[in-house]
Amino acid sequence: MRGMWRHCTDERGIASVMAIFIMVLMLVSGIFLVRMSSTEGDIAYGSMWAEGSFFAADAGVNVGINVIAPGGPTCVAGATARSN
Question: What's the whole-model pTM score?
């Protein structure tokens, strides 16, 4: 019985197993962080294009207003007044 207990308590090789386990954990966390970084870049790129589209549409509306009414009404404290 005593010989069997000594066989079960032998811890040779556990350092290699733990080192491999830690390396796998670090690899998985590194892959996760790279994927998250890539996703953040895609989000920033999409938001840049959305903002550019908004400003282009706003400029188009302003050009259209200037074409329809070249002088246009002037805004004074929230009310429109005609210029003479």
Answer: 0.46
